[in-house]
Design brief:
CATH architecture of one domain: 3-Layer(aba) Sandwich
Number of strands: 11
Structural class: alpha/beta
Keywords: Hydrolase, Magnesium, Metal-binding, Nucleotide metabolism, Nucleotide-binding
Catalytic activity: a ribonucleoside 5'-phosphate + H2O = a ribonucleoside + phosphate
Helix content: 40-55%
Pfam family, one: UMPH-1
Number of helices: 12
Strand content: 15-25%
EC number: 3.1.3.5
Enzyme class: hydrolase
């Protein structure tokens, strides 16, 4: 862990949220190290802002969940996270940030337009209240299959992915890199679930965070390229918006796979499934289903409510243990994880 990150993390841990929405006792000051660091006016102002962005409906329940996870130990904990608008920002410089799927340009306008036409046809069906789950699942498989077919037929290259990410309006929330580093040092796995494309997500991580993390897995649709970098097929079963959960874990591959790691994938997945305490991060109510397929003991869910706050806040507070609003950074999540992993009684 870098010295700069140690200082930054210590500063986070030494401060308390001053909001009545966040009164649970576990988030207390670490008095033993308080005198060693000065929070300063800027940090205090940041904490006041964080306090107004973080809401907890049932502090006692959350406090009990934190205690249960802490008692079981870090070796029983895993983090499950959505990617778009959860790990990434919803707004970037006043404009809507792009999704990992939406940023892709094939370098072939005809096929970009065909994919857009599929989106306009199937997207309303995805959220239609009159279509049953079984029929909707078939429609999503159909949509994803056609889209993947167009990417192959249209001659997508890995270089097009690199350039699309470089040109994209996409950025991580402040603190995501620090969160991954904190978890990596404690051997806590992070499963990023996405109905998008694993190769694009990995490229976003490479270009925006400038490093890989051995504890991070991408559970998403993975491409197969030939020796010339042209897309030829997709690996495994289709992961779409209605099945991105731990049933799809066998599709996951380590983020550092391309760096030559040869760990036993089956054994690794079995190890993850034995971690029965979960911190779940998502921005949609449907993301709560990402832990389906895992027989978890304790789950703490954090919901990022990025827009339409007035109309959606009560629903999110009923569904999630913690709600972060206004495109909040990850500092509150880091503080939450630090309490789960704390050795303090």
């Amino acid at each position: 862990m870098s010295y700069r990150f140690q200082l930054q993390l210590q500063s986070i841990l030494l401060t308390t949220f001053r909001s009545p929405y966040f009164p649970f006792s576990s988030f207390s000051l670490l008095n033993s190290t308080r005198e060693s660091f000065c929070c300063g006016k800027d940090l205090e102002m940041k904490d006041v802002k964080l306090a107004s962005e973080l809401l907890v409906r049932d502090p006692l329940l959350l406090d009990n969940k934190i205690a249960a996870i802490r008692s079981a130990g870090p070796h029983k904990l895993q983090v499950i996270a959505d990617f778009d608008a959860t790990l990434t920002k919803f707004w970037i410089n006043g404009t809507r940030g792009q999704s990992s799927h939406g940023l892709l340009k094939q370098g072939n306008p005809e096929y970009d337009e065909k994919r857009q036409q599929l989106f306009e046809h199937y997207h309303p069906l995805e959220f239609s209240p009159t279509i049953g789950l079984e029929e909707k699942t078939k429609l999503m498989e159909e949509w994803w299959g056609k889209t993947h077919g167009l990417l192959v037929e249209g001659g997508l290259t890995f270089e097009s992915i690199r350039q699309s990410v470089a040109d994209a309006n996409i950025a991580f929330r402040e603190g995501v890199g620090e969160l991954f580093e904190y978890l990596e040092e404690r051997d806590i796995p992070v499963l990023i679930f996405s109905a998008g494309l694993a190769d694009i997500i990995e490229e976003v991580l490479r270009q925006k965070l400038h490093r890989s993390f051995k504890n991070v897995k991408i559970v998403s649709n993975r491409m197969v390229f030939d020796n010339d970098g042209h897309l030829v097929s997709f690996k495994g079963k289709v992961i779409h918006s209605l099945n991105k959960n731990e049933h799809a874990l066998d599709m996951a591959a380590p983020l550092h796979e391309q760096l030559g790691d040869t760990d036993d994938q089956t054994a690794d997945n079995a190890s993850v499934k034995k971690r029965t305490n979960v911190l779940l991060l998502g921005d949609h109510l449907g993301d709560l289903g990402m832990s389906d397929g895992l027989n978890y003991e304790t789950r703490i869910s954090v919901g990022f409510l990025n827009h339409n706050i007035e109309n959606s806040l009560s629903i999110y507070q009923e569904a999630f243990d913690v709600v972060l609003v206004n495109d909040a950074p990850m500092w509150g999540v880091i503080k939450l994880v630090s309490q789960m992993c704390s050795t303090e009684s």
